[in-house]
C-alpha cells in the first residue's frame, strides 16, 4: 500500500505503430490540464479534453524519442546496403564508350601486327 505520495500512470495500448506495442507514462504530480471550471461545460467534457491533452503529449514524446534514437532510418533493414556505384549514363554515352574501347582495341591489334 502506498502511503502519502502516489503516482498517476497512463497506459496507452493499441498504438498504430510498427515499433511500439504499448506505452506506459507516469504523470508528474500536480500537472493537470488547464482547468475548464467556470466555463459552464459538464465535467465529462473537461475529462475528455484532459485525456486528449495527455494523449497528444504522449504522442509528441514518443515521436521525439523515435527521432532522437533513429529508430525509423530504414524500412528495409533486412536488405544489405548497396555497395556499387550507380552512374546515370544515357544510352548514347554507353554506345560512345564501347565505340572508343573498340577503336582502342583495334589500334592495339594493328600495332601488334605492325611491330
Task: Sum this structure up briefly.
With 115 residues, this protein is mostly helical. The protein contains two helices and two strands; from the N terminus they run ββαα.
Describe the structure.
This protein is mainly α and 115 residues long. It has a domain at 8-68. Helices cover 43% and strands 9% of the residues. A two-stranded antiparallel sheet has the order 1-2. The protein is rod-shaped, with a radius of gyration of 33 Å. 0% of the residues are buried. Mean pLDDT is 75; it is low at 33-39.
List the helices and strands and how they pair.
Elements: E1 8-12, E2 23-27, H1 43-68, H2 91-114
Antiparallel strand pairs: 1-2
Order of strands across the widest beta sheet?
1-2
Q: Low-confidence parts, pLDDT < 50 over ≥5 residues?
A: 33-39
Main beta sheet strand tally, sense and closure: 2 strands, antiparallel
What structural class do you assign from the helix and strand content?
mainly alpha
Radius of gyration: 33 Å
- Averaged pLDDT, please? 75
- How helix-rich are the residues, as a percent range? 40-55%
Number of strands: 2
Helix-strand sequence: EEHH
Question: How many angstroms does the end-to-end distance come to?
Answer: 102 Å
Coarse shape:
rod-shaped
Q: What's the helix count?
A: 2
Give the percentage of residues in beta strands.
5-15%
Key terms:
rod-shaped, single chain, two-stranded antiparallel ribbon, mainly alpha, 115 residues
